[in-house]
Amino acid sequence: MKKIVGIGACVMDTLYNIPTYPREDTKLRATSAQPSGGGPVATGLVAAAKLGADSSYIGVLSSDGGGAYLKSDFEKYGVGTQNIRVLDGYRSFTSTIWLCEDSASRTCVFDKGNLPPLVLDEAQKQAIIDADLLMVDGNEMSAAVSAARLARENGVPVFYDCGGLYDGVADLLALTDIMIPSEEFALGHTGAKDAKAAAKILFEKYSPRVVIITQGSRGGIIYDGEREAAYPVYPVTVKDSNGSGDVFHGAFAAAVLMDYDYEKCCHFASATAALKCAGVGARASVPDLDTVRKYLKENGYEL
Fold first, then answer.
1. Which domain holds residue 176?
2. Cβ atoms of residues 268 and 303 within 8 Å
3. Is 25 inside any structural domain?
4. Beta 220-223 vs 228-231: how paired, if at all?
5. Residue 89 exposed, middle or buried by CB count within 10 Å (0-12, 13-18, 19+)
6. In Å, how far are 52, 59, 79, 159, 203 from 82, measured between CA atoms?
7. What pLDDT digit, counting tens, does each position of 45-62 carry?
8. Eight-state DSSP code of residue 165
9. What span, in angstroms and rounded, lies between the C-alpha atoms of 161 and 180?
10. Radius of gyration over alpha carbons of the chain, in Å?
11. In the predicted structure, residue 1 carries a pLDDT above the cut 80
12. Which regions of 235-289 does DSSP assign to beta strands (E)?
């Protein structure tokens, strides 16, 4: 089976469902609360695993309650943890997320914790060499750049979920094969006035195989240097949009390993993300492969 390995943020989320946003300096009773694993690549790996891909995470976690939860959550969903180092005496990356019923929106407050940066050991380097796809999200930037360089040297494609304008992004973009920035990232990094122009600038500057710019509720665009196309958002009643972008990226990665072309990968990923939004929890509500294929067919798209 083909393998995906990933490096990036891994976050212990606490989700609070609330009926409406409270006024400042007041109290509001949540309708429910639950823990959930989060982080762009970390959740993407879970999505890929639930869709049938062989996925594993490379990183460092704390031995505190948050880190223990995150490691067990990976194991629950079948994501490999053999290349995670667990360290004592550190504070995990955590966040509190409000999921607002009347606006179908989310608000997140996070604490990045104090874990030291990831430095790749020999086992982790070998896992990258042996993989069929490397996913990175710009967190753990130094390790991500080192991993991307190693992947490139060994013929492993690099998939960059470009979500934050972190220091050093240009170094990582230059090592990227599959580039999927948010529209905000693409416009901010290039200075372009629209997504189509940004896609062309990114492609010409960094020479990836493809640039796909995600545009939230408007779907997104695909550019491979010759052809420009669009993909839609699929219809769903939204219960929890948190993590939908992460799920999109993980589903896209799984589709790449199923040898779909990039346009099919986008439709597959968009449908998976839509189905995820119909449930609560960035990971718990990710559908399986048969459900995604059936949903696409019901909505007029054949893989």
1. 9-20+32-298
2. yes
3. no
4. antiparallel
5. exposed
6. 19, 10, 9, 21, 35
7. 999 999 999 999 999 999
8. -
9. 5
10. 18
11. no
12. none
Could you tell me if residue 182 is inside a domain?
Answer: yes
Residue 303 domain flag: no
Query: Domain of 136: which CATH number?
Result: 3.40.1190.20
Angle at which helix 289-298 crosses helix 262-277, to 10 degrees, equals: 100
Query: How many structural domains compose the chain?
Result: 1
Q: Are 130 and 71 in contact (CB under 8 A)?
A: no
CA torsion sign for 258, 50, 166, 153 is negative
How far is it, in rounded angstroms, from Cα 286 to Cα 50? Answer: 7
Per-residue pLDDT of 203-253, as tens digits, reads: 999 999 999 999 998 999 999 999 999 999 999 988 878 789 999 999 999
The DSSP letter of residue 57 is: E
Which amino acid is residue 69, in one-letter code? Answer: Y
Residue 169 lies in a domain: yes
Q: Average of pLDDT values for 277-291?
A: 91
